[in-house]
Specification:
The structure is a single chain. The protein is built from 15 helices and eleven strands. Helix 6 runs antiparallel to helix 7 and helix 10 packs antiparallel against helix 11. The strands form two sheets. Strands 1, 3, 4, 5, 9, 10 and 11 form a seven-stranded antiparallel sheet that branches. Strands 2-8-7-6 form a four-stranded antiparallel sheet, with no helix packed on it. It has two domains: about 200 residues, no CATH class; about 190 residues, no CATH class. By secondary structure, it is α+β, with helices and mostly antiparallel strands. This is Splicing factor Cactin. One of its GO terms (cellular component) is cytoplasm. Belongs to the CACTIN family. InterPro entries: Cactin_C, Cactin_central.
């Protein structure tokens, strides 16, 4: 064996001497000659958790994103409520658009439809090319033409929009309309003594306030408030009433700015399509001076003729028929909740929203009509569309140039939340025209037969019927093509697909 390096030997011997001198009583029983390569106790060190990183450490975007994923329970609840409010507001705007297009609008719908032209939060996929052709009454005209009960309903509707809206300009729009609606309601009531006193100088107030801009009115508002808060000897009743009048003129000025922006947006859009009409609109006020005369639109809507072999000239715009309504439609909160939940589920890629509602033939007035107010159930139905690759289509089409889609099935969801007798589930029956029996066909070549499917329930719901393609149903239990007929939690669900037709080669 060779000699150990002197420096290494000195280091080892020094460690042994230090160990002999410094070892405490609790280590006396340990063997003195231990393996120097083994771990050893050092009283100066201890096992501990890693020290906390300094707070000013630079955080990466990924770390920040990870931190934001962990929200407190209150923050999660607040976020959920905000998302729910956003959805409700979006649906309210969408329904307003649809009722306008179908000429069955309520006063609030005119106000919401007008705002859509400058609303940065609107969904562009809800736009329709024909919307630009729809005349819009001026918001002030909408309020002016209503009676007390209508104004009360409008007031509640405006407050709903104002509560849900988060866009600053949109909120100012609804705030201004709320002030004008409140003022109009006051004018329809008898004036108190102090009101009559101020009305005597109304012409002077109009002369002072009418020509002023929004900026000037805001400056004057500050002056009047300062005067009311001062200790000057003033006619407090007069100045308070003047302030109320000023706030109405301020609301009108705010509304005027929004209406000007609405008109400009419509003119800009028309310039791309019809410059002459754009020029005409630009030179006008841009709004109607009264609410349009209400017209009744048919509630019939059928899948286009190229898809079903039938047509309806009065069909509402695509995607809008599910909101078709009549005067006795069920508008209960329970039905609305069921409808909103089904609407939120949307439609799949191979589905389209479907309503082909028709009058139920030969149905007498129900015997319970004197006891319960008859109403039509609300619904949200889907029609399943797809391609059929029969021998003819395989010869004339391919996947890059597919054949027209055809109806492959339906999914009906009819809402009966307020049934008087919940032990009797609603049902349905098929009605074929002209006494035609199942399997018989009266359709010309290339067309498909249709029939009525009638849904029947007890009070307070009337029967309701839809026109569908008349083909043989597939009652199998396959996952995608499975038949479903059930009544649960107030919803009658009838889902079925048609049997596939296989052609021999």
């Amino acid at each position: 064996m060779g000699h150990m390096n002197p420096e290494r030997a000195a280091m080892i011997n020094g460690w042994k001497d230090r160990d002999r001198n410094d070892r405490s009583d609790r280590h006396r029983d340990r063997p003195r000659d231990r393996d120097i390569t083994a771990p050893h106790y050092d009283s100066a060190n201890r096992i501990s958790k890693p020290s906390r990183q300094p707070q000013n450490k630079t955080t990466t975007p990924a770390a920040t994103a990870a931190a934001t994923r962990y929200l407190t329970q209150d923050e999660q609840a607040e976020q959920f409520v905000a998302e729910e409010d956003k959805f409700v507001l979006k649906q309210a705007k969408k329904k307003a658009d649809i009722r306008i297009r179908e000429k069955r609008a309520k006063p609030i719908d005119y106000l919401a439809f007008a705002l859509r032209w400058v609303d940065p939060d609107r969904d562009v996929f809800d736009d329709d090319d024909a919307d630009i052709d729809i005349p819009i009454p001026h918001p002030e005209a909408v309020i002016r033409d209503l009676n007390e009960s209508q104004l009360q309903e409008l007031d509640e509707d405006i407050r709903s929009y104002h509560t849900l809206e988060v866009n600053e300009r949109n909120r100012k729009y609804w705030t201004a309309l709320l002030a004008l609606c409140t003022d109009r309601r006051k004018k329809l009531k008898p004036l108190p003594p102090e009101g009559r006193a101020v009305s005597a100088v109304a012409p002077e107030v109009d002369r002072i306030l009418a020509p002023k801009t929004l900026t000037q009115l805001e400056a004057l508002e500050m002056q009047i408030r300062a005067k009311l808060q001062s200790n000057e000897p003033i006619d407090t009743d007069y100045w308070e009433e003047l302030l109320k009048s000023l706030l109405i003129y301020k609301a009108k000025a705010q509304l005027k700015e929004v209406c000007s922006a609405i008109k400009d947006a419509r003119v800009q859009l028309l310039r791309l399509r019809d410059p002459e009409r754009a020029k005409e609109l630009e030179g006008s006020d841009g709004f109607l001076d009264a609410i349009p005369t209400a017209g009744k639109s048919s509630s019939k809507a059928l899948v286009p003729a190229s898809k079903t072999g039938a047509s309806s000239s009065s069909a509402p715009p695509p995607g809008t028929a599910r909101f078709a309504s009549t005067g006795n439609e069920d508008f209960s909160q329970a039905s609305k909740a069921l409808l909103d939940r089904e609407v939120a589920r949307g439609v799949s890629e191979n589905e389209e929203i479907f309503t082909a509602e028709e009058a139920v033939p030969g149905i007498p007035r129900p015997i319970w009509a004197d006891k319960y107010r008859p109403r039509k159930p609300r619904y949200f139905n889907r029609v399943i569309m797809g391609y059929e690759w029969n021998k003819y289509n395989q010869t004339h089409y391919d996947h890059s140039n597919p054949p027209p889609k055809v109806v492959q099935g339906y999914r009906f969801n009819i809402f009966y939340p307020d049934l008087i007798d919940k032990t009797k589930a609603p049902t349905y029956k098929i009605i074929r025209d002209d006494g035609r029996k199942k399997g018989e066909s009266n359709a010309p070549a290339g067309k498909e037969d249709t029939c009525l499917i009638r849904f029947i329930a007890g009070p307070p719901y009337e029967d309701i019927a839809f026109r569908i393609v008349d083909r043989e149903w597939d009652y199998s239990a396959k996952k995608e093509r499975g038949f479903k007929s059930c009544f649960d939690k107030g919803i009658l669900q009838l889902h079925f697909m048609f049997k596939k037709i296989y052609y021999r080669k």
